[in-house]
Amino acid sequence: MAVRLISSFVGIALALAVLFLNQTFLFPLALAGVISVILSELVKAVEGTAFRVATVGILLYGIVTPFLEFYSLQAYLPFAQFLCLLLVFIEFLRNSKTFHVEQIAFMMMSAVLVTNSLCLLIALKQMGAHGMLYVVLALCGGWIADSGAYFAGVSLGKHKLCPEISPKKTVEGFIGGILSNMIVFGLICLVYAMIRRNGGMELQVEYFSATLLGAVCALVSVVGDLCASVVKRQKGIKDYGSIMPGHGGLMDRFDSVLFVVPALYGFLTFFSIFE
User: What is the 3-state secondary structure of 207-260?
Assistant: First the structure.
């Protein structure tokens, strides 16, 4: 537990530093770094690292996209991404007897999901005056739900949620994650509104929308967590990596976030949490 907590504090400190420097090139650089590590872990999980050209193509997809998004060069994005994925197809042709369809499909799906999902953080950052708050909520939407579910499950868990996929998950933990997200989202919005009011900006919080958003993010985070668990179970691995002691790999920490970010972006497209 001590190692897990220390690793969490280090990760949080690094995340805060990147968020503080969100107007600089460090923001897309950090995204590109996180994306490339996650993609490396996923490629390794399906034994795709032996296919170096395809791996390079997948990693380039994850590295190039955040910079094109951040510097508003979206016009070049489709062609750049096509060139990256073209490398995967070239590798597929070169190793047609050993590079299986399931591997190439999973690698390309991972590149699109991981990259496009995390790059939506850039779109959230640019979503009006409250952009950086939305980025914080997107990250909290996955991590707070995970933590709330973990502690609720450890202290109260009795009924298994889906034992065949994730034996440790419980119904009580699932409910705890939802409630944790709802409370934390409400509190974050409350504190944010108070800070903005002290700065001279009158801001009203739609607490129903804020807490509903927290619940939606918690529900979606479970889907991401369980999908990642299915892959691990099918491939016979415990963790995706070891970059975060006590947690595993970055994919083990971002599996929920990958689903929460698009869900939060979609929610904010239709509903507002501020007046």
Answer: HHHHHHHHHHHHHHHHHHHHHHHHHHHHHCCCCCCCCECCCECHHHHHCCHHHH
| H and E: helices and strands count for the chain | 10, 2
Mean pLDDT by 10 residues, the chain (275 residues): 61 76 90 95 91 95 96 94 94 92 93 96 91 93 89 86 87 93 95 86 90 96 93 90 77 93 95 88
E-only strand ranges, 23-173:
160-162, 166-170
- 166-173 contacts at long range (C-beta below 8 A, 24 or more positions apart): 166/225, 166/226, 166/229, 169/225, 169/226, 173/149
Give 273's contacts (C-beta < 8 A, 6+ positions apart).
189, 205, 206, 209, 210, 213
For residues 192 and 180, give the distance between their C-alpha atoms in angstroms, rounded to a whole number.
18
Alpha-carbon 237 to chain mean position: 20
Instruction: Give the Cβ contact number of residue 14 at 10 Å.
Output: 11
Whether the CB-CB separation of 97 and 86 falls below 8 Å is answered with: no
Confidence (pLDDT) at 222: 94
